[in-house]
């Protein structure tokens, strides 16, 4: 199924990198030929009413116009206009504990959710967690710290293949992106090319060929580094635009605990990362 409807949650502060990331996310939607819907939410904080003098009104109005939520929406609207993409936006205020749930609910009505990601930010990781495990939809993570370098045209794709069900799900979700790419490389991090590793990678390449995706398969050694760091380093050294991967977690006492690879990649994505569970 082609990607025709994408979702962009807008939360947090409108810092420079965040605004650049919004621009790049809108450009991806335009490249996909998709409609993009932005939802900007901010925490509804009760403030005690106060008497306002006439001289205070102009400054209060200016403060409202310059709110973080409005600046994020303005950045989105301007980017959508420049990209000439079909776009719509909504905004609202909610209690802090409801924001992630509402964003995940809205994400269910899209083919893909675009998520600007601040590096090593616990609140952002919690939002990614909610979107990933409560929406049932794949995410495309945009690393804010590298937004200036990112290309909206996703041409060179690497599939992080670990033979698992979650990786298979990610490949299925990413098929429209893989079919549009000019280069697809399947990569397994393993200390040796065992028969099982080769057979699994070869089988995936064969499957992709049936969908018009002509991929190559290769392995790389960990060399003592974490798999997440190996994937990031390999992507950077091979000019990869996007990584496709499955998300790993396990539940303990009703808490989500990220697996090491997922934690590393979500904490600081090396490029666009399309991730599914």
Short note summarizing the structure:
InterPro entries: UspA. Belongs to the universal stress protein A family. This protein is of the alpha/beta class and about 280 residues long.
Task: Give descriptors for this structure.
277 residues, alpha/beta, Rossmann fold, 2 domains, ten-stranded mixed β-sheet, two-stranded antiparallel sheet, 10 helices
Explain this structure.
The chain is of the alpha/beta class. A hairpin with a 2-residue loop joins β10 and β11. α9 crosses α10. The relative contact order is 0.15. About 2% of the residues have low confidence. It holds the Pfam family Usp.
CATH topology of the largest domain: Rossmann fold
Query: How many domains is the backbone divided into?
Result: 2
The top-level CATH class of the largest domain is: Alpha Beta
Structural class: alpha/beta
For this structure, the quaternary state is single chain
**Number of H/I helices:** 10
Task: List how many beta strands DSSP finds.
Answer: 12
Q: Please compute the radius of gyration using only Cα atoms.
A: 20 Å
Any idea what the CATH superfamily of the largest domain is called? Answer: HUPs
User: Distance N terminus to C terminus?
Assistant: 18 Å
Shape: globular
How much of the sequence lies in strands comes to: 25-35%
CATH architecture of the largest domain: 3-Layer(aba) Sandwich
Q: Strands of the biggest beta sheet: in what spatial order?
A: 3-2-1-4-5-12-9-6-7-8
Helix content: 40-55%
| Helix and strand run | EHEHHEHEHEEHHEHEHEEEHE
Family: Belongs to the universal stress protein A family.
Organism: Bradyrhizobium agreste
InterPro entries: UspA
Pfam families: Usp
């Amino acid at each position: 199924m082609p990607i025709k409807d994408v979702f962009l949650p807008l939360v947090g502060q409108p810092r420079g990198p965040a605004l650049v990331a919004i621009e790049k996310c809108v450009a991806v939607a335009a490249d996909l030929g998709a409609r993009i819907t932005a939802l900007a939410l901010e925490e509804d904080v009760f403030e005690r009413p106060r008497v306002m003098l006439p001289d205070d009104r102009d400054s209060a109005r200016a403060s409202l116009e310059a709110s973080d939520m409005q600046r994020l929406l303005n950045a989105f609207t301007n980017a959508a206009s420049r990209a000439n993409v079909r776009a719509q936006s909504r905004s609202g205020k909610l209690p802090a504990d409801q924001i992630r749930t509402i964003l995940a609910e809205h994400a269910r009505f899209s083919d893909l959710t675009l998520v600007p990601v601040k590096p090593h930010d616990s609140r952002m990781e919690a939002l990614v967690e909610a979107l990933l495990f409560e929406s049932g939809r794949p995410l495309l993570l945009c690393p804010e710290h590298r937004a200036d370098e990112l290309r909206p045209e996703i041409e060179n794709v690497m599939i992080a293949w670990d033979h698992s069900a979650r990786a298979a799900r990610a490949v299925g979700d990413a098929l429209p992106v893989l079919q549009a790419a000019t280069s697809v490389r399947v990569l397994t991090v393993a200390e040796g090319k065992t028969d099982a590793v080769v057979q699994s990678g070869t089988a995936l390449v064969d499957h992709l060929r049936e969908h018009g995706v002509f991929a190559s398969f290769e392995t790389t050694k960990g060399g003592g580094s974490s798999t997440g760091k190996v994937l990031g380093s390999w992507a950077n050294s091979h000019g990869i635009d996007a990584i496709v991967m499955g998300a790993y977690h396990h539940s303990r006492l009703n808490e989500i605990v990220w697996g090491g690879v997922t934690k590393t990649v979500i904490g600081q994505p090396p490029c666009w990362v399309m991730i599914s569970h």
